[in-house]
Design a protein that fits this description.
- The chain is built from 20 helices and no strands.
- By secondary structure, the protein is mostly helical.
- It has helices at about 1-15, 30-45, 45-65, 70-85, 95-125, 140-155, 165-175, 190, 205-235, 245-275, 290-300, 300-310, 320-340, 345-365, 375-395, 400-415, 420-425, 430-440, 445-455, 460-480.
């Protein structure tokens, strides 16, 4: 018995003190720990509860980042302190320079860890020299929490938020654990008012959270994590497979990245809802979009709104004529591409989306809006948009340009629909997951809302049975092959 207790203590100490590179909200260890966390969360109230959440958030960050987790509280403390100091400056030029200085301070860790090697490599190519520089480990979630601190600073500068937010409330906002790994990027005006009023008063919000967590398990653990296995083979060596197999890999990744990222957002929003905190949605059936502009209103909504409010509009938005509008849209997509990583492939992905957005805005002003809104046109628009987005994902996923071009060449020159039947025999479950992903995108929004409300209003036994069924299905299909969330790399 003593040996069992000692082993249990050692396991606990090891868990507390050891980083886990696979740490995420879809893992069994987190789910078990979250249940323990909720006991304390429901027990505490007021400032004690806020301190409790901040400490848990820092522990969550440590599990994901190890010692690099200190960047998170350091970034938050500097942001809070210098934003307050900025608002003490005289209006006009002094405060504008103060705003620029604070944003630079908030950006420095992101620029250093994410882009140092990229810029040194470019400089080395220009000078024809080799820089002996160690590879930097990118802290998980640094892009997301950096954008949150920047949005807070800008909103305070524009008097959308008060400058006297307490340090504890700001730490709660800046380190809130559901948002650390991959967002959604949440504005302070959304989260701060809920901090001291976040205990659920009825069952609607917690049951909504449970529904979203179930959706997250289906999207991430069941669909995305199964699709990724075959997709990786294609993007590693596309020439080893037929054109049809390459096409399936591209379609598979198109589904995988959506279900992976949307699944994480469901986990984050659902976990917050269990705590009585309501966060806005981050995805709204993006592959139902009829054009690229609509796609960016439905995909990664929190990032799209961030770029709109803090980059596109300050650049002039659509207020300075057509040419300036096209240029602003293109520049924003270039920056969005580089935001995902310091890579020429992400830059190309941004170029493709920038060109697509400019083309849509141009043709919308030159006759596109006069095309009748009838079913055949809508279907054609949906297929064109989906095909273009899937094509752009090739450059997003491929490790280099040669791989991307090999995939495109294989699909263009070696596509044989006769390979479909052997593919079905070889990978029936994978194809079923792909078809399931495509089918889920045909659900109309009001039908989804009906399903959600039906779950929320159902008997607790039905909720328990459905939750247990989904978890068991995830265990059977995943076979301990849970993949890291794609956006932890950004």
């Amino acid at each position: 018995m003593n040996i069992d207790v000692q082993q249990a203590i050692q396991i606990l100490i090891s868990f507390i003190t050891t980083q886990n590179e696979n740490w995420s909200m879809s893992s069994i260890p987190f789910m078990l720990l979250f249940m323990v966390f909720m006991m304390g969360y429901l027990l505490f109230s007021g400032r004690i509860r806020s301190v409790y959440v901040v400490l848990f958030s820092l522990f969550f960050a440590f599990k994901a980042n190890g010692t690099l987790m200190w960047l998170l509280p350091a970034n938050a403390l500097l942001s809070w302190f210098f934003t307050r100091r900025m608002m003490l400056l005289e209006r006009g030029r002094p405060r504008i320079f103060g705003l620029a200085a604070v944003i630079i301070i908030e950006l420095l860790p992101l620029l250093y860890f994410k882009y140092t090697n990229f810029f040194l490599a470019i400089l080395g190519d220009i000078l024809e020299t080799n820089f002996a520089f160690h590879s930097l480990i990118l802290p998980v979630g640094i892009s997301f929490y950096t954008f949150q601190t920047i949005s807070y600073t800008v909103d305070v500068y524009k008097h959308r938020l008060p400058a006297d937010v307490s340090l504890l409330d700001y730490l709660f906002y800046a380190t809130f654990f559901p948002l650390i790994i991959a967002g959604p990027i949440t504005r302070a005006e959304v989260l701060l008012p809920q901090i001291n009023n976040s205990r659920p008063t009825d069952s609607y919000l917690p049951y909504t959270g449970l529904w979203l967590i179930i959706c997250g398990i289906i999207k991430k653990v069941i669909v995305a994590d199964y699709l990724v296995q075959y997709n990786n083979w294609i993007f590693t060596d596309p020439t080893a497979y037929s054109g049809f197999e390459n096409l399936m890999g591209v379609l598979g990744y198109t589904m995988q990245i959506y279900f992976d990222f949307a699944g994480y957002s469901d986990f984050a929003i659902g976990t917050s809802a269990l705590m009585g905190i309501s966060l806005p949605i981050n995805f709204s059936f993006p592959y139902q979009s009829l054009n690229l502009t609509e796609f960016w209103h439905r995909w990664h909504i929190s990032l799209s709104k961030w770029f709109r409010d803090y980059l596109y509009i300050p650049l002039g938005g659509n207020r300075c004529g057509n040419i300036r509008t096209y240029l602003n849209s293109f520049v924003v997509m270039l920056i969005a591409g580089l935001w995902h990583g310091a890579s020429g492939m992400f830059f190309l992905w941004g170029v493709l989306h920038g060109v697509g957005l400019v083309a849509h805005k141009f043709f919308l002003r030159h006759g596109l809006s006069r095309i009748p809104d009838i079913l055949p046109i809508r279907i054609a628009s949906l297929l064109v948009t989906f095909t273009y987005v899937a094509f752009a994902w090739i450059f997003f996923r491929a490790p280099n340009l040669d791989t991307a071009l090999a995939i495109i060449n294989n699909i263009g020159h070696n596509l044989n629909l006769g390979d479909a039947l052997p593919f079905l025999y070889a990978r029936p479950l994978w194809l079923l997951m792909l078809l399931l992903g495509l089918q889920l995108h045909t659900i109309r929004e009001h039908d989804y809302d009906w399903l959600r409300h039906s779950f929320i209003s159902s008997h607790w036994i039905m909720k328990l049975m459905l939750t247990a069924l989904v978890i068991q299905l995830a265990i059977n299909i995943s076979q301990d092959n849970i993949q890291p969330f794609i956006y932890t790399a950004f």
